[in-house]
Design a protein that fits this description.
Layout: H1 3-18, H2 21-24, H3 27-40, H4 49-56, H5 60-68, H6 74-88, E1 95-104, E2 114-118, E3 123-137, E4 140-148, H7 158-163, H8 175-188, E5 195-198, H9 200-203, H10 206-214, E6 219-222, E7 228-230, E8 236-244, E9 249-256, E10 264-265, H11 266-272, H12 274-277, E11 282-289, E12 292-306, E13 312-323, E14 331-335, H13 343-351, H14 354-365, H15 377-405
Parallel strand pairs: 1-5, 5-6
Antiparallel strand pairs: 1-3, 2-3, 3-4, 6-14, 7-10, 7-12, 8-9, 11-12, 12-13, 13-14
Helix pairs in contact: 1-3, 3-4, 3-15, 4-5, 6-15
Length: 485
């Protein structure tokens, strides 16, 4: 980092934080915001309240009260952050990523703690889990929102809730429901996602997928291996029932005909489906690891899935992918994108979920997101908000530095493939505008249509060689060599 860059950081941070002044109210709160964010961007080894306060020469209690007691609009800060992203980083190839992260915590009085699966430890333990929304396009990615997950059964005790400062309006909501609320909130602030992607914890929830389709939102979702569907649409029989007294018309009810091929779990399609077995595997270089290139192979067919009435809905893309060195570790992805969408594009979106892992790692290692020692619900929520503010500044700073050093991305080839030797993960800008969602639904499912007209993706995707496609590793965000702001 050169001297000019170091000198530019402090004025740039001061100017950046001014965008949140309206949310802070009183002048002391603006000073606390500066202190907290500067501490998260500093070279402190641990970035909890006390070390940040000591480094800034302020009493730790003032920052503790800033998180827990003082009046400022933390939800307004999220609004301002998202509007800034919408203004400065809008792109027709943007990807929204829903995922969750966890923090090992102990104690019965820390809000949202429960013995549950802790991803950071890889096992079940006492931890706090948060649902997060990320945004990625080009060489830029940032966190847009984060909400603590309140477990369903362990926080019904009013006294325990009171000690943890959990407001009455905060009740159990499934993680997919929290994710849906965050997506809708970001969209209300002007953020547009050409694609959404998420793991099977969300892809396995039909109500979540239905809501996204109603919104006209394209997605590539990892789904559980026991998801059932058909590789060709089964026949549906319609039958007139009692007349609707209000409308004076007969009601028609749909059901599957008796002589139909039963729906099959997707994990059995590789072995038993002649449709899928006839499709050849295509190889893609996902990224270069420490032990060499990671090669995956994938194939894609159409799939009709069951709706809540047991009727077929589709067609959807079913993408089956597996690493070449571990062919038994098969992943399944479902997408509602137009049928003209190429396999390369679907894989780029699916594997872009790795970018939010990069965001989590940067936020925890560089910004101290995992260092919080507060217990109250509001304090945890505000800590997540402020970490998001710090991460956006870091992401924009990194983008500016990369922009000075790197050239433009190569243009797509004429046949919708990446150029030879290209890396799948690094090809964010080649994602095409996927256009409208058109579901040929059977039964009562309505069609959802995107605001964009369909557009051939093959004209916008660069070439990926059949010998390997490279997804690349998202860049590590850092102010290294670290400096105290």
């Amino acid at each position: 980092m050169d001297a000019d860059t170091i000198l530019a950081i402090r004025p740039a941070l001061t100017e950046y934080l001014r965008g949140f002044d309206a949310c802070m109210g009183r002048a002391p709160n603006r000073e606390h915001l500066d202190t907290y964010v500067s501490g998260q961007l500093s070279n402190l080894q641990r970035k909890s309240v006390e070390p940040i306060a000591d480094a800034a020469g302020v009493p730790p209690r003032t920052l503790q009260e800033f998180l827990s007691l003082l009046k400022w609009d933390d939800l307004g800060v999220i609004d301002q952050l998202q509007r800034r992203v919408a203004r400065r980083h809008a792109d027709p190839h943007s990807i929204g990523i829903i995922d969750e992260t966890s923090f090992k915590k102990q104690g019965q009085e820390t809000a949202c703690v429960e013995r549950q699966y802790c991803g950071s430890l890889g096992k079940v333990d006492n931890c706090v889990v948060t649902v997060q929304l990320g945004y990625a396009v080009g060489n830029f990615h940032t966190l847009l929102d984060g909400v603590p997950f309140l477990p369903e059964h362990t926080w019904a005790d009013p006294e325990r809730r009171r000690k943890a400062g959990i407001p009455d309006e905060i009740v159990y909501r499934p993680k997919w429901f929290i994710g849906l609320e965050m997506i809708q909130h970001a969209q209300a602030n002007g953020v547009r996602f050409e694609w959404l992607t998420f793991d099977e914890g969300y892809g396995g929830k039909p109500p979540f997928l239905r809501e996204l389709e109603t919104m006209g939102q394209n997605y590539v979702a990892e789904i559980p291996c026991d998801t059932v569907g058909w590789t060709s649409p089964p026949e549906v029989h319609y039958r007139d029932h009692a007349r609707d007294q209000r409308q004076g018309q007969s009601l028609r009810r749909a059901r599957l005909k008796v002589r139909n091929t039963p729906a099959v779990e997707v994990r059995n399609l590789l072995t038993y489906s002649p449709v899928l077995r006839k499709v050849s595997w295509e190889r893609f270089r996902v990224k270069d690891g420490e032990k060499g290139p990671m090669i995956w192979e994938a194939k894609r067919i159409e799939l009709w899935i069951k709706d809540e009435h047991g009727l077929p809905v589709g067609p959807y893309h079913l993408v089956v992918a597996r690493p070449l060195n571990k062919p038994q570790e098969v992943k399944y992805f479902l997408s509602n994108a137009p049928m003209s969408t190429s396999l390369e594009v679907l894989l780029i979106v699916a594997f872009s979920r790795w970018r939010i892992e990069r965001m989590f790692e940067d936020s925890k290692s560089e910004l101290g997101m995992k260092h919080f020692e507060v217990r109250k619900y509001l304090s945890i929520q505000r800590h997540l908000v402020l970490t998001g503010v710090s991460h956006l500044f870091l992401a924009e700073f990194h983008q500016q530095q990369v922009g000075k050093k790197s050239g433009t991305h190569p243009l797509p080839g004429p046949h919708g493939h990446l150029r030879p030797g290209a890396d799948l993960v690094s090809r964010w800008p080649v994602l095409a505008q996927a256009g409208g969602i058109h579901r040929r639904a059977i039964g009562d499912n309505a069609e959802a249509q995107s605001q964009f007209p369909p557009q051939p993706l093959e004209d916008l995707v660069g070439e990926i060689t059949r010998e390997g496609h490279h997804l690349g590793q998202p860049a590590h965000l850092s102010l290294a060599p670290r400096i105290a702001l």
